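User: Please fill in residues for this 420-position structure.
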């Protein structure tokens, strides 16, 4: 909505501050002033009313009531009055101060309620407040406390630290060891995955499944992890690694119980990760291993582990800094593979060759890998896997062949370089 400074002034006998200060007063409280423009000797406010204040701010009369409370400038006779609702909200000064962490006097609370135009009665230490009908956002005690704090000014409330509890909170054992296991596996080169909780078969069927192939709760993590291994294996050229290593910690469901399971999967030979984890936790780990996937009941494993130390000061903070991670969207289109090998003089490095390949390939070359290096006499052969992919379309053989021809020509322009 738009509001004119001159029209707002008509509701007040006392002069309002300048347009900038009026805009700031509104923005710091219940509205967002998107723009203030000067027009014919007046200032026009482009006000974005927040959803919870829409019922009482449909026009300028609602804005002036807010300004009066915020700036502590009384309204003139032209201003409309609030109509009190039947809602009664009881709140005490001690409750207000406890929640806000302030030291507001009863007289100050009463003054704020008057500025807001609220009807109220004083009953001992308590105020019995009847908020206006138009203020549909005021329904419970916390709403009144928030209004008092808002008008009092949060900048006037001194920042304090919460009181330290007399008893040190107990560390959640499951969360503690789950985090330790996750960090250990990540350091060993494993990535955490989350697979579907629902599947096409199981022991517990959903009454109203959201898909015909996901009408049962899973009884293990193995099936989901197996599919993840298969799918990620297909994308190994894009992942810039030689094998897939993944794990999952999640709940599984049988007719008898629900429990948390840990599953670890790998695409190549077993690296002895279960034994390493067992030594790390200093406990024997029992479970089932099949098809490069090991799964164990994490709840039963936790029973063997000692309670974590509740001395928070002994825990190490994660190291600051680390590698810089950037986000890149995953292409919806398939990738294409090509291999290229080139004979070059022995003093030429594979980085020299790769820089030319990248320059000629452009943005479509998303990954490279040196998979073979062979020296003979005064020459060396470098062989590369090249992975091409577009963010916008499916690439054709013709497009990739043209790029390979450009690469070949650029490489063979060098003396004693030969693509084979």
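Assistant: Residues filled in for all 420 positions:
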């Amino acid at each position: 909505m738009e509001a004119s400074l001159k029209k707002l002034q008509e509701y007040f006998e006392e002069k309002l501050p300048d347009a900038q200060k009026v805009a700031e007063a509104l923005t710091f409280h219940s509205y967002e002033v998107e723009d203030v423009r000067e027009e014919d000797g007046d200032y026009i406010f482009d006000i974005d009313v927040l959803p919870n204040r829409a019922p009482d701010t449909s026009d300028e009369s609602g804005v002036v009531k807010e300004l009066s409370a915020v700036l502590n400038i009384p309204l003139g006779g032209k201003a409309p009055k609030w109509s009190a609702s039947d809602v009664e909200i009881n709140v005490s000064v001690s409750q207000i101060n406890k929640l806000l962490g302030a030291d507001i006097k009863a007289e100050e609370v009463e003054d704020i309620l008057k500025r807001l135009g609220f009807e109220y009665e004083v009953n001992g230490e308590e105020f019995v407040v009847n908020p206006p009908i138009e203020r549909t956002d005021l329904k419970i005690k916390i709403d009144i406390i928030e209004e008092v704090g808002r008008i009092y000014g949060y900048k006037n409330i001194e920042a304090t630290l919460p009181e330290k509890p007399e008893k040190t909170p107990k560390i959640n054992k499951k969360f503690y060891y789950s985090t330790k296991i996750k960090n250990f596996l990540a350091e060993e080169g494993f990535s955490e995955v989350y697979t579907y909780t629902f599947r096409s078969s199981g022991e517990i069927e959903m009454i109203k499944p959201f898909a015909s192939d996901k009408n049962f709760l899973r009884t293990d993590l193995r099936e989901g992890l197996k599919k993840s291994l298969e799918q990620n294996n297909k994308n190994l050229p894009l992942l810039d690694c030689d094998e897939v290593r993944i794990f999952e910690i999640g709940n599984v469901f049988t007719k008898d119980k629900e429990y948390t399971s840990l599953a670890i999967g790998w695409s190549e030979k077993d690296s002895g990760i279960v034994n390493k984890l067992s030594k790390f936790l200093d406990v024997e780990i029992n479970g089932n291993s099949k098809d490069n996937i090991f799964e164990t009941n994490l709840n039963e494993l936790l029973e063997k582990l000692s309670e974590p130390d509740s001395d928070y000061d002994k825990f190490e903070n994660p190291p600051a800094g680390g590698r810089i991670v950037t986000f890149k969207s995953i292409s919806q289109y398939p990738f294409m593979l090509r291999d290229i090998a080139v004979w070059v003089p022995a003093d030429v490095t594979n980085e020299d060759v790769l820089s030319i390949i990248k320059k000629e390939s452009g943005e479509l070359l998303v990954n490279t890998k040196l998979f073979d290096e062979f020296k003979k006499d005064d020459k060396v052969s470098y062989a590369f896997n090249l992975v091409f992919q577009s963010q916008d379309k499916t690439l054709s053989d013709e497009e990739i062949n043209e790029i390979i021809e450009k690469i070949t020509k650029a490489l063979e322009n060098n003396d004693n370089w030969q693509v084979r």
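For context: The first strand starts at residue 2 and ends at 4.
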